[in-house]
Design brief:
By secondary structure, the protein is of the alpha/beta class. It has one domain (2-220): 3-Layer(aba) Sandwich (Rossmann fold). The protein has helices at 43-50, 73-83, 99-109, 114-127, 143-155, 173-190, 201-204; strands at residues 2-9, 20-27, 32-36, 58-63, 66-67, 84-88, 161-165, 193-197, 209-214, 217-220. Helix 6 (173-190) links the parallel strand 7 and strand 8 (193-197). Helix 3 crosses helix 4 (114-127), helix 3 packs parallel to helix 5 (143-155) and helix 5 packs parallel to helix 6 (173-190).
């Protein structure tokens, strides 16, 4: 479903060696992988490359047989809206929208009418245990509740790939474990792919595989 072959990323106009090269990865529906690595090795940059937010300097990325590295900006933007979900440490929940509206936002961007989008958003909030909070404002949420809203929003449009960058970095270990079980469980049930970047071995342990990103590629974590 997702195939990455010999990906290379360099710093712009820099004579230095690549940030990373020879990065290859293949994932099937329902599978999740955690990517760890030293600071500065390019973990978040790799996620941005997979999402088409940063160009690559070599190699290829293909999703459902479509090569992302050959798409123009408009096509990439459309693919991101349809096929990708994002969960980040900062959450990026919009304070001027209630929870149902925040979750419905990806559907609005895909042209789904507000009525059906609201219905689906409320159903998704029920799946993450926040059905009774659908009309609340983000300022009333705890950190764990905010991340559950972010998970609901990431999954609402049934993406093929969910990209997660330190999604539990601001949570205590108990809340982090609960959020990760929910996130990766929903990804498996939906038959999507989850890619989790984290510095935490405990967080990485919730994924099906743990890999370490080095300047020379991805290797199995020891």
């Amino acid at each position: 479903m997702l195939s990455i072959e010999n990906l290379t990323k360099r710093f712009a106009a820099s004579p230095e060696p690549p940030l990373f090269e020879k990065v290859s990865l293949a994932l099937v529906p329902g599978e999740s992988v955690a990517i760890m690595g030293d600071s500065g090795v390019g973990k978040s940059t790799l996620l941005n490359c997979i999402a088409g937010l940063e160009p690559v300097d070599g190699g290829r990325i293909a999703l459902r047989g479509v090569e992302l590295t050959g798409l123009d900006e408009d096509a990439l933007a459309g693919l991101r809206r349809r096929e990708l979900g994002f969960v980040f440490q900062a959450c990026h929940i919009l304070p001027h929208l209630n929870l149902a509206q925040n979750v419905a936002l990806p559907l609005w961007l895909l042209g789904v009418a507000k009525g059906p989008a609201d219905e689906r958003a409320r159903a998704m909030l029920e799946q993450v245990g926040l059905a009774s909070r659908a009309d609340d404002w983000p300022r009333h949420l705890s950190g764990g509740e905010t991340q559950r809203v972010a998970i609901a929003r990431a999954l609402i449009h049934e993406p093929g790939v969910v990209l997660c960058d330190e999604p539990t970095g601001n949570l205590d270990p108990e809340r982090a474990a609960g959020v990760l079980e929910l996130l990766l469980g929903r990804i498996r049930e939906a038959g999507a792919i989850g890619i989790l970047v984290t510095h935490s071995r405990a967080a990485a342990g919730h994924a099906d595989r743990i890999l370490r990103l080095t300047h020379g590629g991805l290797i199995a974590a020891s």
